[in-house]
Structure formats: C-alpha cells, structure tokens
Amino acid sequence: MRSPACPPACIRLGPAIALPLALLAASVAPARADTAARTYALSWSRLPGAEACVDARALALLIEERLRRAVFAAASRADISIEGRVEPAPGAAGFRAAIHVRDSRGALAGTRELASDDPSCATLGEQSALAIAVIIDPGAALDDAQDPSPPPSPSPSAAQRPAPPPKPAQTARPPAAPPPKEAPPPPRSEPPTHDHEHITTGFVVGAGMLPAPSYGVSVRGGARSRRYLGFELHGTLWFERELEQPAGQGARVSLAQAGLSLCPLWIADEAGSLLACAGVSAGALLARGFGFERVGRADRLTLDADLRGAGVYRIAGAWVAVVGLGLGAPMLRDALVYRDAGGAQRELFRMAPVTGRVELGLGLELP
Question: Which of 18, 200, 272, 326 could be stapled to 308 by a disulfide with Cβ–Cβ 3.0 to 4.6 Å?
C-alpha cells in the first residue's frame, strides 16, 4: 500500500509536464519489459556560469534514486547514450538545459530542452533528473511522480463484524536485521562526445629549421571527435634569419610550410582538452645570398614528419587558448652551398636532423 502523502523529494506532474515527457520517452525508450536489458551512459556538462547546477555524479544519483536501481554503465558498453548540458539562460535570469539521446551508432534519437527561472538551479536539476528517468523507464519514473490514490474505505459488512477475541500474549522476538546492501558503484563521468570544429592562430618559436632560433606565425584548423579520427590542416611562416660567415659572406633564409595531421588521441572535459597528432609538412626553404661575387637566391623543397601535442583551455564561450609542443624529422635536407675564393664548394646551411617548436595560440572551438 502506498503512503497517502507525497514524500518531500517527489515532484507532482501536471498534464503540461507529464505529457511532453511521456512523448519523449516513447520516442527513445524501449518497452518496460526490456528496459532492464538496455544499458545507458550519461554525459553531463556544466558550461561556464552554471557551476552551481547539479554535476554529473549528483544527477546520476538522483536518477537512480528515482528508478530505485543502478542503470548507468561506461559509454563503451552502453546501448544508449544520454548527453546533456546546462548553461545560464541568455538575456534572462535562470538556467536552461538540453538533453540529447543517441543510439549505439551515435545517431540522434531525440532531444529535450528544459528551462527554469530558479536562480539557484536546484529546480532545473530535479527537472533534468525526472526527464532522463522517464527516458530510461517511463513506468517506474512516472509512478513516483503521480499523486497516490487514497486508500479504499472498508466495506459495510466488514465494519459490522465483531472483532475476533484477542490472542494470548506471546514473547516477541526482535526481527533479524537484514544484511547490509552494497551501495552501487558511482557512475563514471564520461567526457563530451560532441564533434568540435576549431581554428586557431598563434606565435611559434622553433629550432633546427633555420640557421638560428627562429620565430613565426601559424594557423591551424580542423575537427576533433571521440567517434572518428580527428584531423588538422596547418600552415607556418618562419621569419627570415641571417647567416653570415667571418669573411662577410652569408645568406638570409626563411621557410614556409603547410601540412596535414591526424589526431588519434583526444581527452576532453569541461575545462578543455588534450590531443596528440601526427602528420607531414611540405614547404620551401628560401635563401638569398649576400657578399659573394655573384649574388643569387637558392630555393629548396622541404618535407617533414611531424609529431605534436597540445593543450586546449576554454577561456569563455567558444574562445580557447592553445599551448603546443612539436617535433619534426626532415626527410629532405638539401644543403645551401657556396664556392670560396679557391673554387672549393662549402656548405653554408643544412636543416637539423630533428627540429622542435613551441606554439602559443588563441582561437575558436565550435560544437
């Protein structure tokens, strides 16, 4: 028999809330008979300004408390992925949340948007827990949310029967304590699975590709995702450096490069991400001589294998800061040469076998 009073943690559903939640659950959740056979993964992000809202762990506990069982598993073993984010409502007080449901192949199966004027964000956390619980198991979630019916009144015939004689008193034994239940393991907070397109520009310092420690500017653009291999297109212009011999002869050398990298490693959370990429870069080494009897220019093609690691830190909104470290292995290392007064050919410059670079940049990352 149900208690006639609604416990403090429950939420009463009116038709305006119950009907949309039921329709959303019908479009993405299986029948209640096979709900237990499905596995679910939860990803919940709090965007800047929504740090006071419920976090992923607390939200998962609210959902499992409502459903009275553990329902979440790791994303790699889940049949259905439930992804959500909460952020301040633009231009108004309160917060808003968006919930997306995807199948095991990543296809979008349904979307739900919620909003609340509560400045503490507590109301939106309860609404989000209820909405996700309805998606997973509509019957179990809505049973607790509806008003319980009053207990049936006794029939007239039962009221007129005489009370049975009291039984002799017996010594009552205290009931045996039930064995303690093991608490379910806390759900793992999975990183966001959305695709991200990005473009960044920055200042770069390098060694080994020009005659002296060199400086330049770089531009990068590409896409990253946990569902497919990310990539980057990048270009770097190294400023001109001067190499002079004791006799006053030398050359001014610059370098322009462009390349493609693949990024198999991407670790992301709410604050930013770490990534590792490998690729190739092709370019042109441009040299202009000075101090020789015959002054000219010599251009050389370059081809490098690149490794790069970078940290991407979210500043505000879509703006990000990037710190990157890179290593290069030149596969074409043609030398710049000249002939001395005796006619002998001498080497003026050749790229190092291994080059290095440090990059500081600023850019935009769009979900």
Answer: 326
**C-beta of residue 253 within 8 angstroms of C-beta of residue 219:** no
Residues 61-87: pLDDT tens digits? 999 898 888 888 888 888 898 999 999
Distance between CA atoms of 316 and 53, rounded to whole angstroms? 18
In the prediction, which pLDDT does 4 show? 38
| DSSP strand pairing (230-244 vs 214-224) | antiparallel
Distance CA 29, CA 80 (A): 9
Q: Do residues 70 and 184 make contact, with C-beta atoms less than 8 angstroms apart? A: yes
- Written as six digits, the tokens of 318 are 């879509």
- Burial string for 81-110 (b: 16+ CB within 10 Å, else e) reads bbbbbbbbbeeeeebbbebbbbeeeeeeeb
Span 261-270, pLDDT tens digits: 999 887 877 7
Instruction: Classify 357 as helix, strand or coil.
Output: strand
Q: Give the predicted TM-score (pTM) of the model.
A: 0.47
Element of type H or E holding 159: helix 156-160
How far apart, in whole angstroms, are the C-alpha atoms of residue 356 and residue 243?
A: 19
Whole-angstrom distance, CA of residue 238 vs CA of residue 206: 9
Q: Phi-psi category of 68—alpha, beta or left, where left has phi over 0 and alpha has psi -120 to 50? A: left
Q: Which residues lie below 8 Å from residue 141, measured CB to CB, with a gap of 6+?
A: 25, 66, 67, 130, 133, 134
Q: What angle do CA 274, 59, 126 make, to 5 degrees?
A: 135
Q: Is 179 exposed, middle or buried (0-12, 13-18, 19+ CB in 10 A)?
A: exposed
User: Do residues 230 and 223 touch, judged by C-beta distance below 8 A?
Assistant: yes
Q: Identify which of 216, 234, 192, 200 has the alpha carbon closest to the alpha carbon of residue 318.
A: 200
Structural domains in the chain plus CATH codes: 15-145 (3.40.50), 196-366 (2.40.160.20)
Q: Is the pLDDT of residue 289 over 50?
A: yes
Determine phi and psi for 17, rounding to 5 degrees: -105, -45
